[in-house]
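Exercise 7. Predict the joint structure of the components listed below.
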Amino acid sequence: MVDVAFQPNRAAAAQSGRRRVGLRNALRRKSMSAFLMTLPLILLIAVLVIYPAFYSLHLATLNKAMTKFVGFGNFEFLFKRDTFWLVVKQSCIFAISAVVFKALIGFIVAHFVHNVPANKQRKWRGMLLVPWVIPPAMSTLAWLWLFDPSYSAFNYTLSFFGIGPIPWTGDAMWARFSVILVNVWYGAPFFMIMYLAALKSVPEQLYEAAAIDGANWWQRIWYVTLPMMRNIIAITTLFSLIVTFANFDIVRILTAGGPLDHTHIFATWAFRVGIEGSDIPLGASVSLFMVPILAVAAIFILRDITKRGNES
Amino acid sequence: MSRKKLSRREFVAATALSSAALITAPYVRGAYAAGKLSMGFWDHWVPGANSASTELVNEWAAKEKVEVQIDYITSQGNKNIVTIAAEAQAKSGHDIFQMPTWWPQANAELLEPVNDIMDPLVKLNGEVNGTVKYLGQADGKWLGVPASVGSQIKGPCSRIDLMKKYAGIDVQEMYPAGSPPKADNWTLDTFLKAAEACHKAGFPFGIGLGETSDNVDTAGAIFQSYGAHLVDAKGNLTVKTDAVRQALEFYKKLLAFLPPDVAAWDDASNNKWLVAGKGAMIMNPPSAWAVAKRDAPQVAEQCWTHGFPAGPKGRFAPYLPFFWSIWSFSKNKEAAKSLLTFLSQPASIEKMVIASGGYDLPAYEKLTTLKVWEEQGPPKGTLYHYPNPYKHQTLSIAASPAPPKVAQQIYFQATLTKMCLRYYQGEAMEKTLAWAEGECEGFMRS
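Solution:
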């Protein structure tokens, strides 16, 4: 015998109760609250990044007067221009060499800082981060004065040793060197701090085990440190590669692409063509050309990281 | 709390009374009855020059009952042209925008024609020069009103003492204050000899070969002095001509007498060169002299601004005008036109020129002999010949007479200075010409 009378609405009430409980549970889940908290940022990115990205795609398909759809016409035009291929070559030289040196210097400096006694590390970390925290437009202006064609402080100093004057921004090779140098100066601290964090997470027991096995300094780096840091190195390299490929301010301020276009990279040439030359569709096409290059780099690097994650 | 109910009769009576009162009351014009007007003006680098524009705009606004908003937008870092591009894309922004050189043509389809105000202004102030027409008109349509603010000639600014001592040229005698120039012998050959002499003496001319405006402007005037154009007015390629070859040969000779780092010069380099007392001449509007007056008075006292040397095809000087243009999406075009008419009255122009210390140049021929240029100093009269008062040189812009949208590319890609540099660095003449021709072909895409 049942002791509860039949209630026709009971099923519906139970269902709505379940729904409330479900919502409460969903809100209690960490992932859900995290999503809700990041939602404003996601919306902001959608408005400020995704919309402009699609708009630039749209622009890249228009003719110069922006009155006609030309499909890939702008890219076809660019592929026939020598200057464009010069810019592609320079962007690769600039980004790859800058990232390699940033990684190398960051790695070495991170080791130095790691070996500094803990109570003095904060001071060193703070000092070494200074180039990275100064807005690059400002610090590049200081570099511009150091490299100034007529009044270079570097040349003044070198003159005491009978060297120079060096055409820091007036000769194609020196100008390339100068823009890469400034980019390395600016970006190396980022690598340093990332690598330092990675170094601190390497278990000390691994080094002790390696020492018992008789590993020397180089073997400890090669067989312990580097494998433990691989993911951080890969992600930092990818991030830096993207940022360096898209660099604008350093080259724009230091050389404006000169001399003879020999320091132009995608962003500076896109600005020259699109804004200064009033050919916005072509400028958009130049800047979009970075996307496939960076996408390929991202796929390779991220695939490698995922593979290692699965293996472990 | 009691609440009185409004009866239908009372409502009708109250409405009738209020309507009668409104109709019979005298018309009171509100403070901003004629609406709003916003303008993006170029941020002048002469301290205090913006205030003259502000005062004039406010004077007009008070008279016309218009609410005005002025934004002074700097050209540092190209902020003004980035703003133009953004407003053109968004089809929204200021009502009036002060556009430099090529931008009215680049945005011709988005600008309100101003023929109705330009025609009376030309009658009032005199004819405008050919470069203003070239940059400001498309198919007979005026794309903007020439603004005196910011418009400039980039002619030679010479050191009186150094030119006299090392080149044997008395620039004050050649361009006397208050009277016509006696510059028949001031040719590109004389200029080259003077460049050589000053270079030997350790005071080379400060003429850049970089990719920025000052560098390109000088190259443009010298090319035009040889009749050398990369693209003609009809859009035909004219790179491989004797005139272009002659201009390149001239530059090759000149480059040997310039500072070794000129390939890296920007628009500040020549100013610094003069102010530091390192050179005998630069090509610039009087801004370098004005800075010298403040920072190096002994240099400023020796500066004399004068005309360009003549070449086989004439005497050309680089001229860069600004225009006040009205966007076609402006909501108050009539007020905008009224303001531009007011700003272009002789008294308004004179006020702005005085505020700029003589830097700004009106485009109209009746306004090139204002007192301000006579009085500026030291030395007194240093700017007398700056506005080209005797019209003895043709005011031009680099890359003209190519169709403006092609010329803009030649100008900003610095094709002229790049050609000079390539040839100077040892590239064969024909290879340099072939490279330039390829570039210009690319600039012609539509």
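Discussion. Residues 8-24 of chain B form the longest helix (17 residues).
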